[in-house]
Amino acid sequence: SFLRPLHSSPSVKYRHPTPPPYHRHRRRIDNPQPSPNPTRPDPHAHSPSRIRPSARPRRATAGGERESMASGGRTDLDGAAVAPLTICVIGAGGFIGSHLCEKLMAETPHTVLALDVYCDKIRHLVDPPPPHLAGRIAFHRLNIKNDSRLEGLIKMADLTINLAAICTPADYNTRPLDTIYSNFIDALPVVKYCSENSKRLIHFSTCEVYGKTIGSFLPKDHPLRKEPEFYVLTEDESPCIFGPIVKQRWSYACAKQLIERLVFAEGAENGLEFTIVRPFNWIGPRMDFIPGVDGPSEGVPRVLACFSNNLLRREPLKLVDGGESQRTFVYIKDAIEAVLLMIENPARANGHIFNVGNPDNEVTVRELAEMMTEVCHEPAMATVLCSVTLSLLNL
Fold first, then answer.
1. Strand pairing partners for 277?
2. Per the CB 3.0–4.6 Å rule, which of 79, 254, 262, 294 could disulfide with 58?
3. Which residues have a Cβ under 8 Å from the Cβ of 386 and sit 6 or more positions away?
4. What does each C-alpha distance from 147 to 115, 133, 144, 352 come to in angstroms?
5. Contact criterion met (CB below 8 Å) for 120 and 97
6. What one-character-per-residue DSSP string does 213-279 give?
């Protein structure tokens, strides 16, 4: 996986002969200059090309050794000791939040205020906390929509990480109002309290804010679809193209982009120290459910769980538009490593937006379906592979 600020991403060449019309994260960025003030970077300034260790880490002194011991022996990418933090994790009970809490408890000296409406995925950490975690993690059951405790908990923390969101594609069409409220309206007080109380914020967004490519409007057999300028997105230059208002599938991407703009504006006008994270197809345990097995019988999970459900039930794997859309899957524990770098390197991460994904792990949904079918090596599965190539739903 890679960890790269959007303002300094190099050009990425597309490897396939026929690029897809809806490719959201390919872009070319000129190499900019780093921020002149590392303690509070100008939100309009550019960043280093990627977070990496300094060529000459600081030399440890006696005082530095004592400081390093107090931080649990952790150092940042410049060799400085990392001071223990109190971190308010909003959405701690979700897929990403649960893995982040595990990482913080297992490998750092930091303290976590875990906020969510459910704690099923972190029950092993909080109900009750194991003896070795006593005093280091506390679960607060609350809904950020209407709980007066939110500002007080943010004030108690050095850093707030906001993971709260409705981010299941099946909900975007069926629950557009909830999607917009969850991803924009409900996030407003979090941004406000962090800004007013001078607290650092790491806000989780989405790769969907990139919208559509220009090439998506060309006929499928048009020769210009193979030209990079029609499918490579340049972060600071490409037009931002979303679907029409009647296509409520875009409610999620639009809400996420608007809250990104608000966070960035708070940094520019009021000095909010922020980092924005755009995950690209993070996968792993606790991400999703198999309908009727470890989740509700109704509802549509994401593509991996959806295909797994079809295979378990020996049903055809249904492909939207022939399965031409692409994914860049990243294992959750690799992605959390990137998040921890942002947490412990504020001088490098503040004021920047990071795309976290694996450009060397691209696969079409059709290719994914074929690979998953091959993994299910039972003879009975041979008919499912046939269904994969024939069952195409143009939705």
1. 204, 354
2. 79
3. none
4. 11, 26, 6, 29
5. no
6. -GGGGS-TT-GGGGSHHHHPPPTTTS--B---TT-GGGHHHHHHHHHHHHHHHHHHHH---EEEEEE
Helix (H, G, I), strand (E, B) or coil at 1: coil
C-beta of residue 235 within 8 angstroms of C-beta of residue 209:
no
- What would the DSSP string read from start to end of 138-166? EEEE--TTS-THHHHHHHH-SEEEE----
Question: Beta strands 2-5 and 352-357: pairing type?
Answer: antiparallel
Q: Is residue 165's pLDDT more than 50?
A: yes
* Known active-site residue 252: yes
Distance (Å, whole) CA 94 – CA 167: 11
Answer for the pair 349, 310: CB distance below 8 angstroms, yes or no: no
Report the C-alpha gap between 81 and 72 in whole angstroms: 9
**E strands, 346-395, in order:** 352-357, 362-364, 392-393
In terms of C-beta density within 10 A (0-12 exposed, 13-18 middle, 19 or more buried), how is residue 73 classed? exposed
- Walk me through the domains of the chain, giving residue ranges and CATH numbers: 2-281+329-360 (3.40.50.720), 288-328+363-395 (no CATH)
| CA–CA separation, 312 and 290 (whole Å) | 9
b/e code 126-142 from CB counts within 10 Å (16+ = b): beebeeebeebbebbeb
The tens digit of pLDDT for each residue in 271-325 reads 999 999 999 999 888 887 666 566 555 556 678 888 888 888 888 888 887 888 8
H/E stretch holding 126 reads helix 123-126
Stated pTM of the model: 0.77
| 371: Cα separation from own chain's centroid | 25
Q: Is 5 helix (H, G, I), strand (E, B) or coil?
A: strand
Cis peptide before 359 (omega within 30 of 0): no
- pLDDT reported for residue 58: 36
Task: Please tell me which residue in 22, 118, 252, 331 is annotated as part of the active site.
Answer: 252
Rounded to a whole number of angstroms, the distance between the first and last alpha carbons of the chain is 31
